Amino acid sequence: MEKKMKEPFNSLKYRYIAMACSAIFIIAGIIMFFVAGFVTGIDFGSGYSEEIKVSPLGFSASYTGDKTAVLSVESGILTLTLRSPEGVETVSFDPAQYPLSGDVAAALEEHGIDTAVADPLLPASNLIAGFGFPAVLSDTPVRVNYATDTVDVTIEDIREALSSLGSVNVQTVGKESDAGFQIKVNVEEGEGQSDVEARVNGALFSAFGEENIVIMRADFVGPKFSSSLFRDSVLGIALALVLILGYIAVRFRIAYALSSILALVHDVLAMLSFILIFRLEVSSTTIAAVLTIIGYSLNNTIVIFDRIRENVKTEKRLTVSEIISMSVRQSMTRTVITSLTTLFAIVPLAFLGSGDIQLFAVNLTWGLLAGAYSSVFLAPAFLLIFNRFMPVNVEKEKKEEEYSLV
Questions:
Q1: How many angstroms separate the Cα of 309 from the Cα of each of 15, 259, 323, 376, 401?
Q2: How far apart, in whole angstroms, are the C-alpha atoms of residue 197 and residue 226?
Q3: Deepest of 73, 103, 296, 299, by most Cβ within 10 A of its Cβ?
Q4: Which residues of the chain are under the pLDDT cut of 50?
């Protein structure tokens, strides 16, 4: 009994299933857009963003002498710099030598710095360097905070503390035990940065104590800037697609160009649908991910189309659909290896990263999968459809080869 030969992979065989799946997914994204809209970051939606840590106060430091005293943090170690006409004195308080916050405060006292110790038993290795460092010491005390696992503040506690501010988005930054949070607040009409900052911090100080809140980073984007940034981002993506259309039309033919653009439009819509369905934030990081995916997907598609063009000249006995299927198979190994190599670097960031880096990695992971899928299943199918209206001409391909780019 003869063993039946395994049929070679034919991507065109699944073209209608692939188109249907893509259509369903994109339609779901469109429905989510009209139902809930995008979750926009402050760069596109305008607003105030603040990253904080809830950490206990170790001690506060002040100085009334005739030198210039500066507290700074270098490689997680507190450093005191004293400047005077006689010269500069720099002292670092290494946790190996000063293991507790009380030890650091006592050492500062020896150098003429006045300190008020709140908790002398905090580990000095867990110093939190916030917004205020480096700090020039004066008679106004500068707070020095240290992280500890004993802080029992959850994301729900932060949300409850800010509930009076209206629409507030709160996310955890890092591990839950770090008590780090990202807070985003919409800007009211005519409200400036100092106003919204006072509203947010006033609520936090009231709930957790001013001495325990360390502001790590703060950003403010006004409505006019955010709207212009969104418009410029959309124009940038549209311009990229137009330039790609022109390049492929010159490099290959218009049928290849239209097929590539349709596949790229699919990739953009698939990524936006993914963001809408899973309620991810849309920001300038999203635009960076979209443009990166356009480049990856286009590269895969051009490799496959270049193989198709070469096979059209040599495989005269095969039909166009057979040539397309064979070309996809010949390029499959390269497509898979390229995508997997990038995914090996990106996926860990999607799981272990935080903030904008994690968001970029998640978007890029999905985009890489969608781009490889469209290059294998959709772009060749679109080319087969356009071939009905603009048939492949072998003689023309040979003639154009003389003028094509290397």
A1: 20, 14, 9, 16, 10
A2: 18
A3: 296
A4: 1-2, 394-406
pLDDT at position 264, please? Answer: 86
Question: Is the preceding omega at residue 134 within 30 degrees of 0, hence cis?
Answer: yes
pTM of the model: 0.63
Handedness of CA 308, 313, 314, 315 (dihedral sign): positive
Q: State the CATH class of domain 11-44+225-401.
A: mainly alpha
Sorted by sequence, the CB contacts under 8 Å of residue 301 that are 6+ apart come out as 259, 260, 263, 264, 374, 375, 379
What is the Cα gyration radius of the chain? 29
3-state secondary structure of 102: helix
Per-residue buried b or exposed e for 75-110, using 16+ beta carbons within 10 Å of the residue's own CB: eebbbbbbeeeeeeeeeebebeebebbbbbbebbee
Rounded to whole angstroms, how far apart are CA atoms 38 and 277? Answer: 10
Q: What is the pLDDT of residue 176?
A: 63
Which residues in the chain are classed under CATH 1.20.1640.10? 11-44+225-401
**How far is residue 14 CA from its own chain's centroid?**
33
Give the integer Cα–Cα distance in Å for 44 and 221.
8
